Amino acid sequence: MLKSFIEVDTDSHFPIQNLPFGAFETDQGEVHLCSAIGEYIIDLFVLDEEGLFNGPELNNQFAFQDSSLNYFMSLGKSAWTEARETLQSLLSANNETLRDDPLLREHIFKKRADVQLVMPVQIGDYTDFYSSEQHARNVGSMFRDPDNALLSNWKHLPVGYHGRASSIVLSGTDVYRPKGQTIPKDSEQPVFGPSLKLDFELEMGFLTGPGNKLGQSISVHEAEEHIFGLVLVNDWSARDIQKWEYQPLGPFLAKSWATSISPWIVTMEALEPFRTACPEQNPKPLDYLNQPDRTTFNIQLDVLLKTEQQNEPHQICSTNFRHLYWTMAQQLAHQTVAGCNVQPGDLYASGTISGDKGDSYGSMLEITWNGNNPLSLPSGEKRSFLEDGDEVIMTGFAEGDGFKVGFGEVTGKILPAIE
Ligand code: MN
Hints:
Number of domains: 2
Bound molecules: manganese (II) ion
Number of helices: 11
CATH architecture of the largest domain: Alpha-Beta Complex
CATH topology of the largest domain: Fumarylacetoacetate hydrolase, domain 2
């Protein structure tokens, strides 16, 4: 097994097998791109400046001297592979370049706990899919008709909507309770005020690389070549606003006020050892979506809730990325099939990921069945939806033989609505 000269705990999300991409703020207030290993971050700006990315794809590209990953992401798969191989080689136990150069090491490694991570990518566009069958069935049962929970298009195409890129925030950013129009029970007149049904959605998202030209499309067979990596996503949702506004054009203000992502982008290559089978698709999708040997990734996902009284984070959901009905490749093929252009740094989120039991549901809406079965916390508190001061913590990892490839966390705390 590949080993680094840097000690990494077997429980760490960031062994030499991971090497995710992120960004941090330097002591001088600049943004440098970085990777992570064990308890450390790796300053990629300095590595690049030292001329250590010297393979054919990255030599003289200055790919890591930008303040965002977009340019590096636009270079495509061969550049991504080269960067990963270079980093793995420089960090490996038998490479002396960094290992035996304390001065260089001091410039390159910083304790992860001592740095402020920042948004590593400029996200131009954001789509949110709805690809978990169990989630779609639960929501359809609650909001419409339990006997007809899935609409007729659901198994023929990956349903989605265009989200809002400007309000995507990095893990750790507090979010304000949104205000909006809702319709009180048994009333025909809407009222205005802070949302009373504030929710999270456990999702994962992928960020795209090179993309396609306007008018062209990306085939389902080549779609994975355009996927740079994955993040954890919390698609904050105001259920009462959503219920009143969503017909006929889909979610709007209920979702656009904030979406949180984890700071580390875990690459497709790091996830490669964790490929696993997908749920069967019946009926068979149309040709442009048909992917005969579909695989996905085995990624364990957990949600924990912390409140002002419940100081110890309490686990409220445990599920897996592999449950999704539509793959990322199918989502990307569908996104572009009408000729819409995808660009480096776009975000495509999965939709809420729910398993088939109450403790694997990825939203409060499902866990409490629209508030009908409130959740009891060890502190003695009950929750139907999120309250001010509550903090939602999502985490995810894939488990290898003696190591984990993880995403760290995406966290966010609810602040009271602004008066
Ligand atoms: Mn969502």
